Every structure is written in C-alpha cells, then in structure tokens.
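Design request, tokens follow.
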C-alpha cells in the first residue's frame, strides 16, 4: 500500500520523470499533469495527500493554481517549486497557505526530506483533529438529516420543491436555487420553482441535457460547474432522474468547496426519495380520481388541483387558462341513443382530446355534456391555439349513427384566462360560461359553416352582384344576405377602396400601442409592394407580439421583416376579393369585399368566433403557419 498519493503539476516532461524516479521508490503513488486546469479538475474527482506545483507554467501559474486549490479544499497540502529565487513570489505563495517553497535545481535528499516532513506533519494534524472533526461532522450530518426529515412530511409538489431549495440555500449559504422536474423519461427537464436571487433565462425554462451534463445527471452525484460558483444537484431515485437543482452564488465566498458537495449529496438523497413519494402519490390520486366511464377527472379533484395552480400563478406571476367544453345537442342525442352508446361516444371524444393535451393539462367531466380543461402556463391566445387543435383532433369523431341516419355531435368551446378574466375558479368559469353562451348568436354557428371551405363561406357571405342595391348613398342587400346582419356587430358596408388601408393602419397602431398583446392580421391583396407603400408601420411592428400576413400577390417577394410576412399564393380569389382579418386576445374583426370601381362593397363583423374560425379555415386550406 502506498505511503501517500502525490499530484505533481509541471509543464516539463523532465520533471514528471524526476518526481516519479525520486518518490515512487520511497513508496509514494505519483500522478503527473501538465497544467493547473487539469490538476483542478482531477482534484475535484480524486483525493491526494500532497500537491507539488511548478510556479512558471502557461495558463494558470503556480500561485493562482495554489489559490484555487486552497479555495476548493483549504486542508490540501501544497508545495510550490520554482526556477527563480523570487522572494516576493515566495511570500505571496506562503500567504496562500502552501506548506513550503522549493527552488530548482532540486536537491533529491532535501526534497524527499521535505515531503516526508510535510506528510508527517499532516498526519499528526489529521490525528489531532480527527476526533474533533468527526464530532463536528457528526453534528453537521445530524443537523442536515433533521432538516431533511421535514421533506418526508410534505405531500404537495410545489411546497416540497420550495422546502428542498430553501434547505440547500440555508445549509450551503447560497443566494439562489432553481428546480427542474423531469419529463418524458428524463429526456428534458421543465422548471418548477425558483428561490432567492436565482435568474432563469427564457431559454432555460426547459432543459434538454446532453453530453457531459447528461452524464453528470445519470451519475446522480452533485457536481460543480465552471467557476465553482454554481452546483448541479441531480435528484435521483433508484436509477431514475426525477429532478435537477442548480444552486448559485455562495454567500461571502467566491466558490463552493469540496465539503459542500457532501452536504448536497446527503440532501439530494432525501429529496429524491421524498420527490418519488410525492410523484407516486400524485399518480395514484390521478388514476383513482378519474370518472368511471372516461379518462377525465372528477370535479372534486379538478377544483383542488386548480386552486393549487392558481396559488402558483399568483405567486410567480404566470398565466393559466380554463376551457369550458360543452356538447350543445346532448339532449337530442340522448333521445336517439342509449346511455351506453352515448357514453362510448363521449369516451372517444375525451380520448381524442387527451392525445393533444400536455402532461400538465388536465380534463374533468362536470356532467355528461359538460367538461373543463385546465391549461397551466397558458395565456388566452395559447388557449385559442389549443381549442383549434382539439377541433382538429375531433374532426372525425363527431358523428353518431343509428339505423336511419347520422347525427352530428356539436362540440363548443370557450376559455378564460388568469389574470385577464379573473383570479378564481368561479370567476374564470363564469367568464368562459358567458362566452360559451354567446356562441349561440355567432353567425358561424347559426349558418352551420363548419364543413365549408374558406372561399365557400366568403362566397355565401357576399352573394351574387344582383343581391346589392346602390340606389342610395349606402347599400342595401337582398333578404337572403340581410339575415347575416346583426345590429351590434355584423353589417354590409360600402366605402372608398383606400379606406381598407386606413382600417389596417388603425389596427397596426393598436398593435404598436399594445405591443405585448399577441395576435395576427391577415390581409388578402393583389400586390404586396402596393400594400407595403400604403402602410407606415412595418418597422415598428417588429417589436410587437402580433404577426401581419399578406396573402396572395402577383409574384414572390423577399422582405427582411420577422413580423410582416408576404405569402405568395397563386389563386385567383386573392386578387378578386380583398379581405382583412384581425384577431388578438381581446378583440376580433373581419372584412370581405368586392371591388366596384373605386369603391369596396362587402361585409364586416366583430364576431369573435366567426373571425377565429375563418382564420383557421384559411390556414388549413393553404397550409399556412399555425398561429390560431
């Protein structure tokens, strides 16, 4: 067995051989490296009784290497070797706590004597302090374990996450900490909670570890990041990675130390077990709290879960959306079909919806025809996108057949979002219910245009030219078109052609003034450059959250804008029928017209559901980028 392990740092191979020749016959195990960086990485992984460091080296010199070694492990014995008799440098090294300073050329007998004395002194020091250190370590471990026992009494995920981070910050004197939880078999980690002064850029909301980072997670042991002022702490149970913690900025110290890794390992062991128990209990609850006839939760569980999510979004200033989904003709279907058949149809609908929901989204059944869907981390615009995906997922499952004919299943959805529409389940549910009831007056539903294409709907709206009467200053329409009008939100209109540019300019001004409100504008046009010249706000739109799509055009054009996109579509209706559609989180507008000399004659509306579905039809018909 070796008398001791020695790490020698020197950029010259000659001294590697010298140290081995002098020390190996004396019974020491000698390891040689060529620079300070390599030595520091090695010392993080392995223990050495003594470090011998050359002073003049490229990169980190001997003084800086010694400083960083002593910062990481204050008890590490270090001897510095130099080819220059520089008293100032020797004093600087000794101030760092190095054991001794040796000048080249090395005298073999004196050098061996120095190493023996250093290691003998270290052995005496270790023996003297061993019992004291054991008592201190025992007290520290006991304190750590007592704090960690509290983890096992917490059964709510966010409370457990906060407690683990607070405990680590207290024990290791850190300024901040972040917890990510594993998803999809540990292939990515999504941020769950943050404490203290930790900052999480948008790019780190979800982590996808690869390479060295993934190897560290799978190893399951705490590790220091570059600079040693941050620490990764994997939370592992068995061989499964459940979470990942990043501890940041040790208070009053430039870096974490070797002893901190041991404390972190003890905490992570408890935290991993506690997290496993909470996730297991959560999975059992979720399986047992589903309705017997379908893969939807009951309302008791849904209400409790939503209160937890609301507490979280209030605390962290995030978004949350609630969708109300209702089968509008449930009573009629119940008259034609037996309970078993109707329940099977509802189960197919729930199954289809669950295929497009995220892991964090949950669906509950309030009644046979009434459902709630909770969307954490989702604003109102995001809920509209989810509704579009749900409609697409249900497109081939919304029919029931008896012996005589097929009966459509009419599914309607509306949503409300925190904090825009309310701060409680009752407020959000009432807002979504009000919007759901308002669908009865939507032109899109009254005319049953779900199965029609975009241009079919436009053609039915505008009707034939003979349906218009221009005998007065305005315009009147035939009774067939008049039924599309609504005194409050839908009318036929006659106006100068350039007014369409004025309307679009007004919407662009609104977008610029409310730059954080997400939305889309679709403008059908024959000439992209003509529209570009008529609008002065293209550059300012780049800083908004709204995208402007110009569709149609005579030829392809390339612009450098990110928010204003010309989409060339070689289809005759785009040049014949000018249109404008605007949708954001708060409002909606659509205008479709025909040219009549220097005028436009057509139909405009603020019917939210109509505009939303017309935009969806346009995107689906021409396979445009999915925005809503």
């Amino acid at each position: 067995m070796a008398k001791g392990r020695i790490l020698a740092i020197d950029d010259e191979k000659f001294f590697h051989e010298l140290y081995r020749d002098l020390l190996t016959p004396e019974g020491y195990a000698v390891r040689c490296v060529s620079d300070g960086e390599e030595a520091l990485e090695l010392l993080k992984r392995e223990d050495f009784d003594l470090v011998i460091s050359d002073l003049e080296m490229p990169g980190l010199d001997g003084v800086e290497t010694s400083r960083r070694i002593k910062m990481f492990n204050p008890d590490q014995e270090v001897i510095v070797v130099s080819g220059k008799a520089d008293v100032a440098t020797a004093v600087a090294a000794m101030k760092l706590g190095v054991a001794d300073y040796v000048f080249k050329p090395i005298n073999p007998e004196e050098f061996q004597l120095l190493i023996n004395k250093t290691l003998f002194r270290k052995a005496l020091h270790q023996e003297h302090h061993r019992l004291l250190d054991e008592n201190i370590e025992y007290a520290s471990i006991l304190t750590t374990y007592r704090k960690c026992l509290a983890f096992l009494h917490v059964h709510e995920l966010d409370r457990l996450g906060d407690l683990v981070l607070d405990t680590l910050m207290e024990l290791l004197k850190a300024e901040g900490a972040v917890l990510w939880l594993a998803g999809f078999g540990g292939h990515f980690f999504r941020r769950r909670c943050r404490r203290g002064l930790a900052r999480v850029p948008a790019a780190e909301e979800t982590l996808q570890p690869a390479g060295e980072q993934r190897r560290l997670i799978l190893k399951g042991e705490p590790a220091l990041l570059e600079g040693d002022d941050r620490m990764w702490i994997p939370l592992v149970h068995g061989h499964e990675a459940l979470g990942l913690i990043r501890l940041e900025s040790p208070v009053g110290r430039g870096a974490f130390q070797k002893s901190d890794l041991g404390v972190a390992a003890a905490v992570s062991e408890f935290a991993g077990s506690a997290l496993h128990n909470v996730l297991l209990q959560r999975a059992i609850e979720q399986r047992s709290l589903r309705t017997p006839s379908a893969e939807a939760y009951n309302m008791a569980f849904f209400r409790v879960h939503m209160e937890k999510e609301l507490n979280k979004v209030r605390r962290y200033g995030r978004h949350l959306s609630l969708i109300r989904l209702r089968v509008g003709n449930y009573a009629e279907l119940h008259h034609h079909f037996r309970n078993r058949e109707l329940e099977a149809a509802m189960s197919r609908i729930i199954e289809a919806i669950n295929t497009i929901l995220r892991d964090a989204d949950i669906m509950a059944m309030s009644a046979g025809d009434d459902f709630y869907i909770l969307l954490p981390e989702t604003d109102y615009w995001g809920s509209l996108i989810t509704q579009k995906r749900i409609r697409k997922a249900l497109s081939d499952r919304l029919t029931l057949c008896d012996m005589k004919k097929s009966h459509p299943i009419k599914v309607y959805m509306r949503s409300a979002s925190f904090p825009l529409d309310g701060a409680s389940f009752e407020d959000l549910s009432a807002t979504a219910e009000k919007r759901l009831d308002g669908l009865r007056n939507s032109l899109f539903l009254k005319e049953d245009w779900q199965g029609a294409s975009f241009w079919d709907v436009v053609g039915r709206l505008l009707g034939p030219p003979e349906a218009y009467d221009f005998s007065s200053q305005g315009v009147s329409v035939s009774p067939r078109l008049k039924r599309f009008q609504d005194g409050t939100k839908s009318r036929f209109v006659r106006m100068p052609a350039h007014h369409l540019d004025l309307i679009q300019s007004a919407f662009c001004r609104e977008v610029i003034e409310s730059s954080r409100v997400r939305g889309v504008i679709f403008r059908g046009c024959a000439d992209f450059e003509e529209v570009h010249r008529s609008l002065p706000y293209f550059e300012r739109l780049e800083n908004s959250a709204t995208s402007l799509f110009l569709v149609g055009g005579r030829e392809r054009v390339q612009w450098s804008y990110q928010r204003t996109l010309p989409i060339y579509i070689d289809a005759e209706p785009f040049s014949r029928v000018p249109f404008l559609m605007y949708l954001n989180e708060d409002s909606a507008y659509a205008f479709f017209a025909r040219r009549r000399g220097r005028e436009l004659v057509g139909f405009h509306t603020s019917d939210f559901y109509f505009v939303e579905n017309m935009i969806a039809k346009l995107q689906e018909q021409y396979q445009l980028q999915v925005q809503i």
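Comment from the thread starter after seeing the answer: thanks! The two ends are 71 Å apart (CA to CA).
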